[in-house]
Amino acid sequence: MSRTVTIEPVTRIEGHARITLQLGDQGEVQDARFHLTQFRGFEKFCEGRPYREMPALTARTCGICPVSHVLASNKACDYLLSVTIPPTAEKLRRIINLAQITQSHALSFFHLSSPDLLLGWDSDPVSRNIFGVMRQDPALAKDGIRLRQIGQTIIETLGGKKIHPTWVVPGGVSEALTPEKREAMLKMLPEGLEIAKRTYAFFKTLVPKFKDEASNFGTQDTMFLSLVSPEGNLEHYDGFLRIKDARGHIVEDMVPTWEYERLVGEAVEDFSYMKFPYYKPIGYPQGIYRVGPLARLNNADSCGTPYADVALAEFHMLQESGPIASSFHYHYARLVEIIYAIEMMERLLKDPDILDHRVRARARSNRDEGIGVSEAPRGTLMHHYKIDDDGLITWVNLIIATGHNNLAMNAAIRQVADAYVDGNNLQEGMLNRVEAVIRCYDPCLSCASHAFGEMPLVIELKDAKGQVVDRLSRG
């Protein structure tokens, strides 16, 4: 008899979601879906607001990666102003973005995913969490907490607070860096780099133990989308769009970010509040691609910092040829990017111009449409605004990093379910592997909850025992 297995909530991710596995008569997996169950609708909330409010408004989309939204939003506002921000302001924005990547990647690796890697997929779920890691390996847990603290402290030092800083403004930043703050941040970075290198070395010893997972965790053929610098190197703040296919061929390169609509189409399905972006020239759903640290390292020719470049070379040795296909290696890529972020922050802070007081360009709106694109920890983040003659928002579209990965995440849970789930003998560890492949992508679902076109809406009426007695659907 066919039946549906529901995993709800999906644990150790940011936001609310469930996974459903449709099993056939013989217990085989027939379908697997990842459902985003929360709806927020920020694009609509923002209509009618002055465009200068957008950085503060859209940052409230998320408490985990508000800096990413602040940056993409302010870049869209820079475009509306039609200004080039001062070079020092750009360097300061890069630093706060790299601090955000450091703290977010540390949260993902140490707090959310290391319990599976250290304690095992089949370990007791009661202890399979950061507290279990503290008991098993106190030094590793302490490193994770400290590394995240360093990232958060740099955000607070620059932005005035750890969450929802308002220091980045249209045209630049609101306040120049002082020598005292620069020295305070530089003092923390050597310790951060040692932790990052130590964790990376530790994780390399773990990778051979997870060959099976690396073979089954989201290895489907996809393209990879990310920003790259004009030289083709790793880029998180600006640059151009690059897309590689599953064989490593560059299919789009040095595409200006304001041309993103030529590349990215958006579809909706009735089982999720998350959009399904796709590569438009191929169509939906064949135009599947991935973003985030795995895509960025697959697309970059080089990192441009000493230790990260060594790690990047080792990353490419995980596979004989072509882009690294397994989504399990998002963890590896995340650790390489932490090393890069700390090295690059130190380089930028030691730049002779970093204390320059010219940090903001001022202007009125000079365009009626603005596009801002940057790399959030989880991938490419796109903000697109239209305004009227009074500077009020008339239209907003946000394409969130997690949304870009939606097609890939759905394909990945199907692959993992096919590999590990036996419907006739369900074990908790099997279902944990299905959740774990989602954790590889480190989804931020609070950010990714959006509707496009007709809103898919399902209302269920349940009785006191939780049984569904009526159901309405739309979309």
UniProtKB/TrEMBL annotation:
Pfam families: NiFeSe_Hases. Keywords: Iron, Magnesium, Metal-binding, Nickel, Oxidoreductase. The keyword Nucleotide-binding does not apply. It comes from Candidatus Thiodictyon syntrophicum. It comes from the Bacteria. This is Ni/Fe hydrogenase subunit alpha. Mg(2+) binds at E43, C62, L398, H450. SUPFAM superfamilies: HydB/Nqo4-like. Belongs to the [NiFe]/[NiFeSe] hydrogenase large subunit family. GO terms for molecular function: ferredoxin hydrogenase activity; nickel cation binding. Its cofactor is Ni(2+); Fe cation. Ni(2+) binds at C65, C444. Fe cation binds at C65, C447.
